[in-house]
Amino acid sequence: QVSKSLKTNPPYTPFILHTNTAYSNGMSIWAPKRIELWTSNPVNSSYAFDWMGHLAIHEWRHSAQVYALNKGFTKFFTTLFGEHVLGGVTGLYLPYWFLEGDAVVAETSMSPSARGHSAEFKMYLKAQILDNKKYSFDKAKQGSMKDFVADRYIFGYHMVSYGRYRYGKDIWGEMLNTLGKDLWRLRNLSKGDSITVNQEKLYNDMYDYLHKEWAREDSLYNSIQKSYTPNKISKENKRYTNYYYPQTKKGNKVFTIKTDNFSRKKLISLSNKKEKKIIEANNFMDNYFFTQDSMIVWSEYRDNHRWENESYSDVFEYNLNNKKYNRITKKKRIYSPIYKPKDNGFILAIEEDSLNNQSIIIIDKRENKIERINIFGEYSSLSSPIWNTKGDRIYYIKNGFRGKSIEEYNLEDKSFREIIPKSYKNIINLRFLNDKLYFLGSYDNTYQIYSVDNNSNILRHTHSRLSVLDHNYIRDSILISDYSSKGSELFMIPNLVIDTLRNISETMFLAKVITNQEGFVLDKDSIKDSAWVSKPYSKLKNLFLFHSWAPLYINSYSQDFGYGLSVFSQNLLSSSILETGLKYNNSNNKTSFFLNYNYSGLYPIININMDYGDRYSYFFDPLG
Predict the structure, then answer these.
(1) If exposure means fewest CB atoms within 10 Å of the residue's CB, which of 90, 161, 200, 580 is most exposed?
(2) Which pTM was predicted?
(3) What residue spans of 69-198 are helical by DSSP H?
(4) Buried b (16+ CB within 10 A) or exposed e, 388-405
């Protein structure tokens, strides 16, 4: 199903799962062909669906894109020289915006909640188009350090989905097939069987379409009578800047993480629009921290010093009074830590094991113990754990194939209660104040602040133009991080109920179009039992996997190439890499043999490099 609209069907492709990691990502590679997934769940997912479902669709679509080129002229050379031909053609002819944009289109059209359905995903380009001058096509696709430009995932998604809206779902499949068959014509991604598309014209048409749609939304927003006037507390910045997770300490100071393109990420204090750096925050997971009294706690990304696919997320804290750090856990995967109200000796958090199963934990710092709370029901990930004011109940978000929900756990009687049932509209960032639960919800395709009353009514507290990115509370006021074309800015607003949630908006228009075109939505019921037999993987038997050769001398170790012959092997674990072949020396008409081998499956890395038959060379440097 994933490859159908590209008119191809990729061959059997191994999936490599890296589960001992705090890193969430994936990549599709074609020499040797494989898909590698770093399967840790995102800390604060921006869509209400199973992460692995998204990841599998996205990365498998990349394999479909590459294999769709395996036609005619390209297929002849792939058959002759091996898999690296397809990888080379992809790198030369397919732009990044198409590769990532088309994969986001696939995950959006085949799941009920993905990036194309996300309020956060839309707001970046919407702000750019409504408030900034129109960028050139080159700047829009390549990005900029000076100005904020939506990344290739966002830009590419809107380009690819608009192309399908304008020309039909088969447009990109036609172009890939034509490119593969007639590669010798050097046409790039422009011509299909029935249509020719100029990329820059497509960009201009997409821009005009989105500007019209979003200007209409903006005029509706401006016509609404506002219930409050925000009081801006962050300073004016000359360049694009974001403030994350703002928190107050008795209303005197605001603590927040500040980022921009030209300086290191840092945790700062803000008072009367004057900023003071507290500590560096480059490794803070999800830009998250929590402060109480004189203490700051966060989870920090930590690499393994040897194994590149193994990583951790450990809990650290910082004392503002004595300016000392304290590492609370070691070699764990713990996220979103938060102190118990009025007691910094207990920390509530989420822990993930080596098979990516998540649980709620309470860390007892005094006794150096961890208590795990078994969460029942069907879910794949948890997020945003918080305490109530008394510290006898906790709340958290559950996410899975059937959407996101909010649950309560009573620490005294060990009972569970569902606060908000499962929905494919995203909810993030729980907060608790005065016996009321607050959160950010995307019910109207923007993130707004909502709360739940005792009768389970959902109450709205903001009317942000683009989206509220975070919120915290002090007495009768709400501290918000509100997004604009300048980045996210900090405001103080009154804590008012401005509406009751009655209707949930339809999904974004382009997402609806491509979903209807696809006619398939991944859910729990569509995943069948595996047809493959599970068996042990022998590292010894699979030490070598020859995937490509070339009628050239190519030595990646010495960064050298010339006349000759090269053969390449790399096992699926990337722990055994071999390149060998012959080099023809044109100056003396002699042939030499070379071999480079790297094995990194043991703690010491073994390198073997050999040249035979080549002349010994020595360079004398009189200045050295």
Answers:
(1) 200
(2) 0.94
(3) 72-81, 84-93, 96-109, 119-131, 137-142, 152-167, 171-181
(4) beeeebbbbbbbbbbbbb
